Batch of 2 targets.
Target 1
Amino acid sequence: MAPVLGHGPNGDPETQLVESRVLIIMTGGTICMQHSPDGLVPVTGFLKEAMAPRPSFNDASAPVQMHAYKNGEKIILDSLRTPPTAYSRHVRYGILEFSPLLDSSSISSIGWTEIALTVKENYHLFDGFVVLHGTDSLAYSASALSFMMTDLGKPVILTGSQASIFALQSDAVDNLLGSLIIAGTFVIPEVCLFFHHTLFRGNRTTKVSASAFEAFDSPNCAPLAKVTSLGVDVNWTLVRRPTRIAEFQVTKYIDTAHVACLRIFPGIKPEMLDSVLRVPDLRGLILETFGMGNAPGGVDGSLTRVIKDAVERGIVIVNVSQCTNGFVSPLYAPGTILGRAGVVFGHDLTTEAALTKLGYLLAVQNLSYSDITAQMAHSIRGEMTEMTTPSFSHPDGTLDPTLVKLTPAEATFAALGYAVQRGELRNVCEMLEGKESGHQLLKQADYAGNTALHLAAMSASPDIIKELLTRGASVHTRNSANNTPLFLARRTANRECVELLENAGGHLWVDERARSGASTPKLVDEPPSRPMSPGQ
Ligand code: ASN
């Protein structure tokens, strides 16, 4: 597409900068609250009242309306755009406000479903999503959404603030602006939580302060990105990508209504645990244990017996640590005894992730008790640390960097490009083998912005496309001419390649459709496209 030509505040034509599109989903929370006789309450009209008057959210360009979907209905949203970011683009955004707006202490599986479905029905219209949400249950919501969203290919960033955006001193502007810029710039296809200049994997987070601006931590997983004065520093080796050839899906209504959470304490009575485990229709319990996963066995093993009985009745019991750092394991005898009684070791899951993961698995159709316990002990969305496997880096390839004046990274990518073009699947696999260098190569691009997936699409190599997709290559990355791999694959008329890319969630943007003469699908209001550079 032609990049959007905007007008500056004085009506002067601006340099042509591309726009990315982000949908803000406002659920409530302190960020939009104002004082009332009942204390702080959320108020509507966030775009007009809080964002429009602030130059960092509004470059004063001519107003533009955009389409979105709400509960299956097509609606029109007012939009604003940021001034140019450090990544030479504007972020255009509109807001969908939930009704009623919530203090996040009242969110539940219904609210999570509403958020997830809103992302789903607007998925093809935006580059990324920012969910504004109260901080009290933010870590629970980020965890829940991460499980509910399968094969997510675009960023979903949850944020909020400790003080209202209307307060003189607040963290709201930094948190929201940082989230908008990241969601509009980087293909980080995860449910994330952004707070205090830091982007976390959502299902690793926990709220650690009721008042400090540094309110969240991710004790067992390094941040996915940090915002500094130099820009956004993304830790790409940590970023997870979909590795299945499948469309983005949402699981609705996870079952947290039949899951309980209990913190073990010295002197806890077996009867107390037993009565929780006998709550009618209870299906799961998150047991917060001491240290590395220990609980008192009770006099004559009575507490262990209560647990064993509950497991025999089909209740899934998951062991997580009360400690913020570290993990549970059968190192000590009490932990081993719990394991023998049928308790699942949740390794380094947070309570928030354990509870919502179990709720999710209980909502998935046709999972047996052993399917659920098996999945609780393994990472499905990066929520727990997996045993690390050794990785190695591939040598720099066959090209002599001094001869062709390429950097080592460019030389390696060039070698990959040739292997792709020649359809050399084995060579491609070998080059992508090292975990770190493999990820790097998947998002690297040539001088024309083509990633390995673009090259494979042009070379009509379905085997290589499949390999790249299952290693996490993004179908949404566009080259310098704004073309997706799908657009290029359609040009080669290779049906298998087109189908693979479509099955992996690839879609044409409006201008690509016009150029390719493709028929218009159901969702017709995609924005004009713009490059989403793979290195970002
Ligand atoms: N009570 C508020 C909420 O969670 C707290 C906040 O957003 N800072 O909605």
Note: The two ends are 20 Å apart (CA to CA).
Target 2
Amino acid sequence: MQLSDKKATLSFSDGSAPIEFPVYKGTVGPDVIDIRKLYGQTDMFTYDPGFLSTAACESGITYIDGDKGELLYRGYPIDQLAQSCDFLDICYLILNGELPDGNQKQEFDSLVTNHTMVHEQLRIFLQGFRRDAHPMAVLTGLVGALSAFYHDSTDITNPHHRHVSAIRLIAKMPTLVAMAYKHSQGQPFIYPKNDLSYTGNFLRMMFATPCEDYKVNEVVERALDRIFILHADHEQNASTSTVRLCGSSGTNPFAAIAAGVACLWGPAHGGANEACLQMLEELQANGGIEKVGEFMEKVKDKNSGVRLMGFGHRVYKNYDPRAKLMQETCKEVLAALGLENDPLFKLAMELERIALEDPYFVQRKLYPNVDFYSGIVQRAIGIPTSLFTAIFALARTVGWIAQWNEMLSDPDYKIGRPRQLYTGQQSREVPSKR
Ligand code: CMC
């Protein structure tokens, strides 16, 4: 952090002395006012529910410029990365800060590949879940359970343990997601096959059966790999902040990532892609394109409780750059699979067209986010809607673990402990006769 020449002064209307706070500069983006000493000096807290104006940490991993619609991983624009890298390049970059050279790439790929299997007893653990359990419920359980199987990498003070845990999590997530899927289908689990790519291996674990192997379609593989790349990290979003807060207590990485998976599940976060596809399917079933105008009126009516899922973002006040890339991938996949006339894609394009011209959306700066098109791609690939958020969790694992590691590597890190404005009862006596 670099100290700025500027200082912030807080003054009070009751005549008490003003207080100065240091200001720090980042490489790009807003400066921060360091208010760590505020409470000690004033006996007051700041109040910022939803963290609208609060930076909770310093980070060098991902940068978003919401007004420009820009997303950088370690300084590289997402569109350039999506054009020229595969997901494991991105994992290496996010974890280590630089893109791998040829040898580093080979070593990293083989390291991840060698950790794809999970402890055999996890299969028995899986049997305890109902077949109709939501895959995110199963995944939260399975990821948390990893801490019961991999004790040898849970010393969080040891950088080597942290590295091994990171590799294990990245390598095993596809296996766990595929296990959750196979369990829901009542099909036998397919073991990883290490001569396939990270994404090809995942597709095979999802769609092969013991009686019929699965030939990986390159367009599908590339599309899913791009989905992974676009979801790999996204700064201090709700699930990443959850991982940091949970990890700040010193808990093991598997427990911290399980907390992130649980947070991601919500429809305002990772669950939005599932909710978005359900919205499109319902709209299609209830009249399709003809009814788009009527539906948009409902979206704009605050009393209807209906939102245009896949639209809007806390940080992006411009087109989400991931949505642009996802729309491109969507067209590619639909063409490759002969689904160019997919009605849901047409519906999505029409909703987007109307929204981008409608003053309600324009004034509020609501643009499509990554989830608007990712559901259509996943559906075309054959991934069931209920698994969409699990795919997101698989991809976001590298971001979570890198952010967790960054926090623990900082010698100044402390357990996270927000404060509150208490508005409950004052201290009172319990009535003697109850
Ligand atoms: N449809 C209709 N109106 C909306 C929408 C929407 N999708 N999103 C925001 N608004 C309105 C909202 O009603 C409010 O209007 P007003 O100022 O008149 O009260 C205004 O826009 C600001 O909305 P907000 O809820 O205060 O904004 P937020 O920053 O708290 O919420 C959001 C961001 C993503 C939760 C929200 O836009 C939303 O619910 N979107 C739909 C769900 C979704 O697609 N989520 C995925 C986010 S991207 C994936 C990820 O990173 O996890």
Note: Strands lie at 2-10, 19-25, 32-33, 62-65, 70-73, 76-77.
